[in-house]
Write a structure and sequence with these properties.
With about 210 residues, this protein is an alpha+beta fold. It is about 15% helix and about 30% strand. Strands 1, 2, 3, 4, 5, 6, 7, 8 and 9 form a nine-stranded mixed β-sheet that branches.
Length: about 210
Amino acid sequence: MTQPIGLDGLPEKASSSGTTYLDGQLLIAMPVMQDERFARSVIYVCAHSPDGAMGIIVNRPAGSIDFPQLLRQLDIVADGAPIQLPDDGETVKILRGGPVETSRGFVLHSSDYAIEDATLPIDNGICLTATLDILKAIAQGTGPRRAVLALGYAGWAPGQLESEIQHNGWLHCPADPDIVFGRDMDDKYQRALQKIGIDLGMLSNSAGHA
């Protein structure tokens, strides 16, 4: 990564109405998914409304860069300066969140941390923040207990996600924070399927919904 990521701007959460939206759900790619960008992906849906949808892929690591290295590249901490990461902060995962705006970063995190007018509460104790302040807080040991940093996101135009689900592109189910924040990227797809009682070896091409 050669340029600092821009961490600003959040989607608006869908307003409450009679329509069922998928905010806070996991999307699980069907085995027949042809788009290589989303094959075997697990996506946490951050916002879903009549205007479209936005989510973060939570089982694609971004590469070899680690979180302390990223903090130094972004000049959040100086070279050689201590990083006071809480608990397992050294293992904050950096994800390839999706193919849209891959130079921007989005932090999915537990609800024990929030920035006024900058943090979007989603569901089940999970929030989204897209400002550098949260990375500074994590570096100082005052950030959220659990967090992942995603570069880019997945986006859908109005009606597109609904169409893909109807055409057997995705399964969906309530999110599990242990899947969203878990460290084992290779295990998340199978765990997400097991959450809705599906054995990958027995899965047909017909979609179902939890």
